[in-house]
Amino acid sequence: MEQFESLLTCCVCLDRYRNPKLLPCQHSFCMEPCMDGLVDYVRRQVKCPECRAEHRIPYQGVQGFPTNVTLQRFLELHAQIAGELPDPTAGQVMERCNVCSEKAYCAPCAHCEKKVCEDCKSAHMEVLRREITRINNQIRRGVNRLQDILVIVERNTSNLQTNCGAVAGEVDEIHKRLSKALKDRTDFLRNEIDRYLATELRNLTHLKDNLELELSNIQSNCDLADKYMNDDVEWEDTELVDTKEIFLKTVEFLRNFDYEGGDYNRRIRFIMTHDPNQLVMHVASYGELNISNPAHSSSYATSLQPSQGLTRSKSDHRLATQFRQQEETKSYYDNDEPILGGRKFGERRPPPPERHTRDYGVTDDYSGYESEHRPSRRFRSRFVRSHQQDNDSDTEQATRSVKSEHKEKEKEKVTDTEDVTRGPLSVQPTHQPPRRPPPARQQSEDDEITRLKRQNKGAATSQEPDRPAPRAAEEERSSITRKPPTPAREASSDGESDESLGTLQRNQRKSAATAPKPVNTTRRPSATETPTAHRVAARAASTESSASTESSGSAVKHTGNERTTPATTNGTVGGAQRVQSRFVGSQRPTPAPAPAEPAQEDSDTSSEEETDSSEESEEEPAPQRKPESQAMARSDIGPLLARSNNARNDAQDNKTKDPPAQPRYRTRPQPAEEETPRYGSSSSSYSNRYGSKPKDEEPTSSLDDDSKYPTARSRYLALKERRNRLARSKSSHSGFGAAEDDDQDEPVSPTTASPSAYLAARYGSGTGGSELSRSRSSHALKSRESSPERPVAGEKDGAALSSWARYLKSKYGSRGKDRDTSGSSSSASRRLSLGLPLRSANELASSDDDSKNAAGSPISPTAATAAVAGFAAAGSSPRSQYLQKRRLQFSLGSRGSEPGYFTWPRGIAVGPDNTMVVADSSNHRVQVFDSNGIFVKEFGQYGSAEGEFDCLAGVAVNRIGQYIIADRYNHRIQVFDPAGRFLRSFGSQGTGDGKFNYPWGITTDALGFIYVCDKENHRVQVFQSDGTFVGKFGSFGSKLGQLEHPHYIAVSNTNRVLVSDSNNHRIQVFDVNGRVLSSFGEEGSEDGQFKFPRGVAVDDQGYIVVADSGNNRIQIFHPDGGFLRAFGSWGSSDGYKFFEVIYNFKHTDPILR
Amino acid sequence: MAALPRRIIKETQRLMQEPVPGISAVPSETNARYFHVLVTGPEDSPFEGGLFKLELFLPEDYPMSAPKVRFITKIYHPNIDRLGRICLDILKDKWSPALQIRTVLLSIQALLSAPNPDDPLANDVAELWKVNESEAIRNAKEWTRRYAMLN
């Protein structure tokens, strides 16, 4: 046995053989380290320790020697017989430690994902310990915030108590006063009665006495007469005459005496000066508790927040999120009801203060969301979070804008803090578009309420009570309408004047509010009616979109219907029908014949609104909404709608050349009349609104979505669903359908029905002012439009403008009208109607809100602004711009390692300040150039430490200017601050979540989420800006949704994620949740085909630029994937040598990769 | 210094547990790579009866390179010089990782019984060994008795 054992022992290590290798001399040795140690590297020989025979080493090294399988079997057998425990190092292979390069038994280190030796591992653990300490410190810092909040909550608690105490005292006081007044009055009345009784009694008694006396006198007279008036008695003539007179008088007296009293009539009556019932009611409801105190609400929110924040934080423990969560939680608290629907109906509280409303809205959204999504895993939860955040941000935005006057500061603070903590993430609302809307609505409602209150305090009471009912907004509206419609308008106008933004918001709110209402008939119907509308809606907010689509599709018709035969729709039924009629009407070419008047009214209202502000004009679109007061409310409903409507109208007017459109506007003049009819139909109108809104609601606030964010996708989805319903609009849609194609959902019917109209629109849009105002619309058009040419001009303008457009609109609302009339705006309107642009605009706006940058295009606010300016200047020639893109602007660098030179530049990105950031891969550094290509700075060097790179690939710059770099061979992502200082890194080699295998392309979206092409893992991973893993999608394969070596990635501002699925020779489009939306391209060299596409970029309008590396060219695609243009060929002369080219369309700078 | 390779530990254990007749090797208390070695002179050799003291050191890359071995006890042998250095092929170019301390010491023991004057290290000794083997053997015995039998 011993000998047997010795046979199993390597004579070099005197240990059991481990991976015995057989030399040609038939002697066996362990491969490592024994055989390894025998190698004579100089002569590439190995000398057998046993026989000293020298053997040439195979090409692959000693592992090229055959394994002594027999010996290995013996080893296994022996192990079985002897029952030995397996050698702990059995199966392990000596490796070079990936850190210190020493040969040793290495174990994987969880920290660096490398196999490292014990020593290095312990060092890494030390690093981890330190990091944990650091994070712990951060947490401690964060805890302070909680403590602060705690303090605030406590303060709020005491405030609440004092406040309630004061109110209770007030109530008591009132009660005292009322009871005293009542008692006094009662006493007074009683005394009066007594006095009256006494007097009358006395009078009657007196009368009675007199009568009795008279009676007795007369009777005695009669007796005397009977007695003496006979012959027995002699009378003198004079006596007789006198007697006769007396008796005649007596007769006369008797005849004439008439007691007026008859039955006793002089009753005293108790007359209430007020209807007792009313009085009782008044008294019974002599006071209400209005919980509108902002401070209160805020305190509330804050108080609520903490607990919830904590609970939430547990799930994903981020301080930053907590903030939002808190807010959410507040809202949560407020609303018991989980979902939007609940919210809508359920806004039960007393008319909440503005804040409250916000909160509510927010909470509802969140709650709905959360309830829906929470169950899901982390991934989802994160997203949910983000959604929530988004919602919050949205709401915040809306609220801000609305309240900007009131509470901007606070909100901003909040946001700021969030930003700080989270960095870019804080602001990320994007993905859950549908849900946001509700908050907006609520807010809008609240705002409206508040306004109304202010304006009509008297009215307020009625409103307030109503509020408790779910639809405060509606009530408000109704109340407004009833009471002083004008005031409402005024208020709206005031609001508008005060803040264009505010108006916008209002409109949005209004729209939102309207939307929420259950009725929704209008919208829905429209949606159902017009599939196209769906599309449109999808782009724009649902409602708006639908409207827009309708308008666009049947813009002419619309105009015709609304304007020329506005009556038809409008006339048919009061408000409700109107609403429908508009939306529907647009869709339906021949709406019901109906009273033109109503339509006119609508138009009037709309026009009025328009006059009030551009925003209002937007509102107009939803004529249904209002009667004037309603108009206000409606305007609330839908800024979006309004926009879309305006857009439509404008577009229609312009495009269709509808003179009629103008008439509309002009017809506005008699608001009062309009109002009245509306009022009359107000109920119906309301219903209409609501009905129309329902659509919105369904989407969960399509309006909100539209207005706020753009998460067009979600909308889209919702819209899609609706589409089916909306069969109607197809006809109208067909033209516009193409534009919508982008969404992919809808078939693009390419060509616009009325190209000429489009062109006109474009051109029209080209003019600066209109463009700005309508930029959104233009956007939509562009994106939608299948024809490349158009898109260029309009799109750019629109895109650039989008964020601004709102602003401008709000400011120069009147312009819109002008445009409408002029027709130049038609394009814009169309676009709006198309609804595409709205999203982007919304997004931008939202981002702006988040970032507080007015210009905030997600990527680079400044850029956006610059772009805007540029566009404005060059607006007239948009069309050609895309085609001109291929012109080389300039090229940078050449091979080398000095600053400004590159060795295999790979990723490129554009920073917020228009700098170009290039991943100089084989120089292991990042270089930054200004927009003119002048070298600015560089950072990074070769290595694996912090701030060092190993063949970095992708670069991205997030909204706050941080550089995010895919450190390819180090399998990690590094984040640098705008100065190029290392901030953090995350990821390591592996296949698990948050691990990478050669990460390549990287990008961020408006919310700061980081998307990484994990190339060798054939997937895309999504992280929060702090590196927290959020999700992943894609797996190896060539089916839809699968990836093979994804190289680069881009996110459009409609939140579509484009991935260059390089080895599948295609571009795939996902939504932010990783669902594949579409893909295009196949292997080949024709237009629209690829060979190993690499770089991919998307511009504001959704145009997709693909670096077709195998074909040495750049291709440009429509947002729907339709081929637009290709340029470039192999060579180095023109700067296209590297074909991972990305255009920055905003700036029209082509960037080479 | 890095941890002691398993092979050295194993060799040491085996030397202690199964000592080779006529040879003892004990690691130094302060350095596990340094061995105090005692070798008895082989029978039928001029060194019979002698107890020779050697030192053995295992270099860093042992077993890939040969151990360093040196006679501390003076010995009259053509392949061992006055400083105790040993001329033995397996300690030089013929070293093989398959060899061990035990085999090295056995080889040295064998060298004592079979001097090889044709490959001398101590030239004078080798010369005498070749010219007058009997006298050389006598000298060897003398030296053995004088230096290797004191204790």
Mean pLDDT over the full residue set of chain B: 87
Q: Ranges of chain A with pLDDT <50 over ≥5 residues?
A: 295-323, 327-446, 457-715, 724-805, 807-880, 1131-1153
Question: Which ranges of chain B are low-confidence, i.e. pLDDT below 50, for 5 or more consecutive residues?
Answer: none
Classify the beta-strand content of chain B into a percent band.
Answer: 15-25%
Q: Based on helices, strands and strand pairing, what is the structural class of chain B?
A: alpha+beta
Helical region count of chain B?
A: 4
Strand order of the largest sheet of chain B: 1-2-3-4
Kindly describe this structure:
The complex is a heterodimer of chains A (1153) and B (151). Among the domains of chain A are: 2-92, Zinc/RING finger domain, C3HC4 (zinc finger) (Herpes Virus-1, 2-Layer Sandwich), CATH 3.30.40.10; 905-1151, TolB, C-terminal domain (Neuraminidase, 6 Propeller), CATH 2.120.10. With 1153 residues, chain A is an alpha+beta fold. In chain A, the strands form 11 sheets. Chain A has a 4-stranded antiparallel sheet, with no helix packed on it. A 4-stranded antiparallel sheet of chain A has the order 16-17-18-19, with no helix packed on it. Chain A contains 40 helices and 33 strands. Chain B has 151 residues and is α+β, with helices and mostly antiparallel strands. Chain B has one domain: Ubiquitin Conjugating Enzyme (Roll). Helix content of chain B is 33%, strand content 15%. Chain B has helices at residues 6-17, 101-113, 123-131, 133-148; strands at residues 23-27, 34-40, 51-57, 68-71. Chain B has a 4-stranded antiparallel sheet with strand order 1-2-3-4. In chain B, a hairpin with a 6-residue loop joins strand 1 and strand 2 (34-40). In chain B, helix 3 packs across helix 4 (133-148).
